[in-house]
Amino acid sequence: MPWQHAPPAHGSSFTEYDTSQTTVVEGTQHTITIQLWLDQQTALPLREDTLDNGSVTEDQYFDYDRQRTLVASYPSDEFSVSQPTNLGQSKSETISNDPTPTPDNPPPSEQDRMTEATAFRSQFGLPSDPGTVQGVIDDPANDASVDQFGTPLSPPELADMTQRLAVQAAAPQVDAYGTAHATDYAGTYIDQTQGGLVYVGFVANGPAHMQDLQATFPYPSRLRLFTPARSLSTLSALNDQVVTDWEAGTITGVTVTGVGINTQANVVEVATPSGTVADTLLLQAKYGLGVVAVAGTPTDSSASSFTFPVPPVDSGLFMYHVTPTGTTGCTIGFNVYRGGFASVSRHFYALSAGHCGGFGASWRHPSNGPIFGDGRDNTVMPPPTGGNVAYSDSQVLSLRFGHTNRIFLRSAAGNNPVHQGRITSAIHQAQRGAIICDAGGSSQAVHCGELADYRVSHAEDNGAYVRGLTEVDYHGRCDVRAGDSGAPVFYSTAALGLVTAQYDDGCGSDTHKNPEGDRMLYSPIDQVLGDMKTTLYTGG
User: Fold this and answer.
1) How far apart are CA 484 and CA 499, in angstroms?
2) Last residue in a domain, options 92, 122, 153
3) pLDDT tens digits for 188-200?
4) Which of 216, 228, 485, 524 has the smallest number of CB atoms closer than 10 Å to its CB?
5) Handedness of CA 249, 253, 257, 261 (dihedral sign)
């Protein structure tokens, strides 16, 4: 258009991106198409159209000179500068805005697949002798489970794991019962080594409570009773006191790196760099026997990494923040929206970890591709006011195109991108031992572990404290690495949260020197959605 001012340094051609989705509104099917035109030179938007069943409902042009101030509005010497003293010297530097992406990690070796599969099977109580593991890996018919659980499983094993997920999905009913009997209730954990049995704790009246639960729980044969010393309400109050003292700086003699509740051990675990007996004794002198020290120092760094994504913006893709000083990256979380019931009245966003970048940061995929989103609301950058405490590590990226409910997964060979995961709901999971999976853009694979602690508190690098996180244990498998921050945490089709940090328990680094870890912290999805004032997108 002759009246439209193009972006500064624009080119002479554009690229058009079209995305479509079908939805039903009040019984009528609507095909919503988004057409976006980007200037090829700058990757900045020129025009965006929204069409409903082929009819344009919104037509927006981007004008980059709308509020221009003329030079004549300023004094004649407004832009003058004094002559430099070193007029005879000159220096020229070129800063690349299009760095070459780091090459892919090599595909996993046969030994890598054996090690990963053996550890997973040991963790979940499946046969893990070398002959069995090798036989399962060698049968290509077993690769269908890789996208769901990150490792090959035989059909009966896949059916067993799927059944465990169904039991896990019903476990919040136990928590609801426990909340109604808080004086006696001590929490729940799931024992995966025993096939996913659900252990329910009561400090008093256990048999009577179990009889009530077995009458209403859909899988009564999976329930088991345990009788600990402390109720969940007692542990929660103790956890809150330790966290408050940590944030206030009143815990002396011990360097605290995290705090959380372990329902199976019936204690509050306080992470310290070494987790020594001496640390435990110091803590118990202040808080009693309900507190123990464990080793761990979580990190939440971003990374420089790799993937081959294309629009639309799928969860699990690695995303790049390109600056004059280099390229860093995190992972795209779930897609969300704000606005009304009809798709045409919604504005779409992608979630990610807040520590990855602040307001206004522009994100691309791949690193030399178009900008797909811009940082907006953020819980931890800058650090929150009113006590420097947040309850999730999250941010929203305002999407320029391509919302979806898909999770970016890789084929069993680990080298071809596929799109098989779809998210249809959001749940809060708080049972120790529950199966928890993530799809990191840096680690480039689906990995599943067990929920370890919840209501975990974590200190960000910028001094902010984040409460209410959940810890996942991969039992020695170094499956989470820097750059996975923001990645979708899920099981089956249910969204659980966003990756926040990983514990580097001697795992070292990958081939690109990105730190790895065998434990992970995530921000629960219900808190993230509330903090970001968004709704999870499940429409396709």
Assistant:
1) 7
2) 153
3) 999 998 999 999 9
4) 216
5) negative
Residues 238 and 377 occupy one common structural domain: no
Amino acid at 134: Q
Tell whether 519 and 426 lie within a shared domain.
Answer: yes
DSSP class of residue 67 equals T
Q: Are 189 and 168 in contact (CB under 8 A)?
A: no
CA distance to 118, 171, 198, 236, per residue, from 205 (Å): 40, 20, 18, 21
Highest mean pLDDT among 11-25, 160-174, 426-440: 160-174
Distance CA 200, CA 210 (A): 8
Q: Does 418 have pLDDT greater than 80?
A: no
> Which two structure tokens, joined as six digits, stand for 60?
């927006």
| Domain identity same for 412 and 435 | yes
Residue 96, in any domain of the structure: no
Structural domain including 400 reads 318-536
Half-sphere exposure of 70 (CA within 13 A, CB side): 2
My answer on whether 336 and 434 are in the same domain is yes
Q: In 44-168, which ranges are E strands? A: 45-52, 55-61
pTM for the full predicted model: 0.67
Interior angle at CA 218, CA 213 and CA 222, nearest 5:
75
If asked whether residues 263 and 390 sit together in one domain, one would say no
Evaluate whether residue 87 is within a structural domain: no
The CA dihedral of 215, 216, 218, 224, to the nearest 10 degrees, is -60
- Cβ neighbours for 43, distance < 8 A, ≥ 6 positions apart: 364, 369, 370, 371
Q: How far apart are the first and last CA of the chain?
A: 34
Contact between 392 and 528 (Cβ < 8 Å): yes
Domains of the chain: total: 5
Judge if 353 and 414 occupy the same domain. yes
66: in domain: no
Lowest-confidence range among 40-49, 95-104, 428-437, 471-480? 95-104
Domain containing residue 288: CATH number: 3.30.300
Last residue of a domain, one of 175, 198, 226: 226
* β-bridge mates for residue 60, sequence order: 48
Q: Are residues 432 and 503 in the same domain?
A: yes
- Omega of the bond leading into 382 within 30 degrees of 0 (cis): yes
Q: Is 324 exposed, middle or buried (0-12, 13-18, 19+ CB in 10 A)?
A: exposed
Quick check: is 54 in a domain? yes
What is the rounded distance in angstroms from the CA atom of residue 252 to the CA atom of residue 282? Answer: 9
Least confident span in 412-421, 425-434, 524-533: 412-421
pLDDT attached to residue 518: 75
Residues 390 and 489 in one domain: yes
